[in-house]
Write a structure and sequence with these properties.
The complex is a heterodimer of chains A (114) and B (111). Chain A is mainly β. Helix content of chain A is 0%, strand content 56%. Chain A is built from no helices and 11 strands. In chain A, strands 2, 4, 5, 6, 9, 10 and 11 form a 7-stranded mixed β-sheet that branches. In chain A, strands 1-3-8-7 form a 4-stranded antiparallel β-sheet, with no helix packed on it. Chain A is globular. Classes of the chains: A mainly beta (114), B mainly beta (111). The interface between A and B is medium-sized, with 31 and 25 residues.
Amino acid sequence: DTEVTQTPKHLVMGMTNKKSLKCEQHMGHRAMYWYKQKAKKPPELMFVYSYEKLSINESVPSRFSPECPNSSLLNLHLHALQPEDSALYLCASSQGQGAWNEQFFGPGTRLTVL
Amino acid sequence: TQLLEQSPQFLSIQEGENLTVYCNSSSVFSSLQWYRQEPGEGPVLLVTVVTGGEVKKLKRLTFQFGDARKDSSLHITAAQPGDTGLYLCAGDHNAGNMLTFGGGTRLMVKP
């Protein structure tokens, strides 16, 4: 299995809602990532989990809360989002530290905040 | 901040033409990846280069890593409409978990 899966594919939520994005990989990768991508821009790193521990938080607002229940799963909990948070949210995974930091991306969740 | 400059930002060509996309940095990469992304989808990894001077081919795509490992290029021969998409280069400067992305090249190949 060389795939990263993400659910849901699309999500529309109000500013008072609580929702979660889910990501799963079964490649035995030990690093997992959340990125945010706005239209016509490259992905922006939000969080990195390495060996199930949060290793990088790129100054992301607390309304985004990541969780790594185990080495195959990564969640992003959303609460009290703003319309400007509307974007494509991408999950990625890689083997871990090393010269070959190949990251494999999921298909993304298209989030719209009303 | 490690910068990775990608050019051109946008390219519109006719089917059958050749093109080259460039990624440049003032810093050395331990590895560099090229991705292709279609609208509403995640980036798909095309290739990883790690050795200075390395050349890799993927059908009509040729990837080159500079001798000093500070720059890379993607050359597409006889472009086809199916090559249309956003091409992203992404470099790892210190063999860690962070990738620095270039700004992307939006390619449109007209039939």
